[in-house]
Design goal:
Layout lengths: L8 E3 L7 E3 L3 E4 H4 E5 L16 E4 L8 E2 L4 E3 L1 H5 L11 E4 L10 E4 L4 E2 L3 E6 L5 H10 L1 H7 L10 H5 L2 E4 L2 H46 L3 H6 L8 E3 L7 E3 L3 E4 H4 E5 L16 E4 L7 E3 L4 E3 L1 H6 L11 E4 L8 E4 L4 E2 L3 E7 L4 H10 L1 H5 L12 H6 L1 E4 L2 H44 L10
Parallel strand pairs: 5-10, 6-9, 17-22, 18-21
Antiparallel strand pairs: 1-2, 3-12, 4-11, 5-7, 8-9, 8-11, 13-14, 15-24, 16-23, 17-19, 20-21, 20-23
Helix pairs in contact: 3-13, 6-10, 6-13
Length: about 450
């Protein structure tokens, strides 16, 4: 539905908008709101946290948009002995700093609460509807981040927040804008939720397809087309991860199925010459369930000569992340490369088709990660990977299974990409609608 525009506009006094409806006022946020930061009671003092009754928020809470539950609870003693302050229900909170996209995000409070020092409370004056201000700040997320250096690590502060410009329509008009944007946003939320549900179902179907195929073989119709027995007999298998396999399949231990199994190392960074070379060097952050064709860093031939742990693994080697935040992640080398010490490389397969085993590890990733042991940073040792026993058919059938799964997972992955693209377009539509309403580009006073 196309919405009308206002009859008359005037030039905007702020760079964030070129014009505003003629009858609208405007002001910097410092003149139309109260702003203050929060605080964090001493984490080392249990008396400030144990059996707390006062809601308290950390910066990540802004991701919820509308906050109805605290991140944690603090005690009255913790409140009294910190710079934390009460913020009334209905007010706004903005992240002054934070990881990733958090900085500059804003949320409205559905509860009275306190917050940490990396958040600012924004309490609008009576002439400014809190929900209208929420949508205005949300629409200008990137402009607000740019006040503190955009994507740089610099944080926002109360003075910068005070400089934020704000158009101020008559209060009744603000409330009409809120009704319009809330309604449109709710409609978009429903569509986004449907797309996300579809993505979850597609991913579940993908995982079930892989797990069934790498343990039972091709589906009957596909097996028949490939000249295989469409209904092979099964035999029980005394393995923890697989209860039965086709009778003509064998079980190979990983250590017997590859000519080379190993990992790499990280040359010290104090010698730049070691990283000034042409040999791709893979870290676990580059394991993204896909084929690796380029790396962020490269090492030199001198580094490979200096460090015996730096071995160059051939194209089509499988890489497994053994520890860290990426534990259990997989990749296949599309180039010859060396790795850091957290990657386990399986190279030069004897009994395994690389693609088949890559899908097999995807099917049993959770079980693979459960093999990890250790204290603070759990580790899947090379010895445990070497000792894994993998049921599989002969190489030609493995190749057929790999080809089938590549086609079918590719089709499912495409459907996921389509749904994710739709979500992205819906989010952009939300932003466009919100921006058009809060700057007066469209007139929604008659919206019902």
């Amino acid at each position: 539905m196309k919405h009308p525009t206002y009859d008359a506009y005037r030039p905007s006094p702020f760079s964030w908008m070129d014009r505003v409806p003629k009858h609208w006022d405007s002001a910097a946020l410092r003149w139309v709101s109260k702003r203050y930061a929060g605080g964090t009671p001493d984490k080392g003092n249990d008396a400030y946290w144990e059996d707390g009754t006062i809601p308290w928020l950390n910066s990540g809470a802004v991701n919820d948009g509308y906050i109805t539950a605290p991140s944690e609870l603090i005690t009255p003693e913790g409140l009294a002995n910190s710079s934390a302050k009460w913020i009334p229900k209905g007010a706004l909170v903005m992240a002054l700093a934070g990881q990733g996209k958090t900085k500059g995000m804003v949320a409205q409070l559905g509860i009275a609460t306190t917050c940490n020092q990396s958040m600012a409370a924004i309490i609008p004056a009576r002439r400014l509807d809190s929900r209208y201000l929420y949508w205005w700040l949300t629409a200008n997320y990137q402009n607000i981040r740019n006040l503190a250096g955009g994507e740089a690590r610099d944080g926002l502060n109360l003075d910068l927040l005070g400089s934020i410009p704000c158009p101020i329509p008559p209060l009744a008009e603000q409330q009409a804008i809120v009704r319009f944007v809330d309604a449109k946003s709710a409609q978009i939320d429903v569509l986004v939720a449907q797309k996300r549900l579809l993505i979850d179902k597609l991913k579940e179907k993908r995982q079930a397809l892989i797990a069934r195929t790498v343990t039972r073989g091709l589906p009957p119709e596909e097996a028949r087309r490939s000249g295989l027995d469409p209904h092979p007999r099964l035999r029980p298998l005394a393995e923890a991860w697989v209860d039965a396999i086709p009778t003509h399949w064998d079980v190979w231990k990983i250590t017997h199925g590859f000519e080379t199994i190993g990992s790499g190392t990280t040359p010290p960074s104090d010698n730049e010459d070691w990283y000034d070379g042409d040999v791709p060097w893979v870290t676990t952050g580059e394991l993204r369930e896909s084929r690796i064709t380029s790396t962020a860093k490269r090492v030199s031939d001198a580094a490979i000569r200096e460090f015996s742990a730096l071995k160059v693994f051939p194209q089509d080697s499988i890489l497994i992340a053994m520890y860290g935040a990426t534990i259990g992640r997989l990749g296949i080398l599309g180039i010859s490369a060396t790795t850091n010490q957290a990657c386990c490389a399986l190279a030069n397969g004897i009994a395994f088709d690389v693609g088949f085993l890559f899908f097999w590890f995807q099917a049993f990733r959770e079980q693979l990660v459960m093999l990890a042991t250790g204290g603070g940073q759990t580790n899947i040792s090379q010895e445990k990977i070497r000792s894994l026993r993998i049921p599989c058919p002969d190489l030609p059938e493995q190749e057929l299974i790999c080809g089938y799964l590549s086609r079918e997972t590719g089709r499912l992955d495409h459907l996921v990409e389509v749904a994710e693209d739709a979500i992205d377009r819906l989010q952009k539509l939300r932003l466009s609608i919100t921006n058009s309403a809060v700057i007066g580009k469209i007139d929604v006073r008659d919206f019902r």
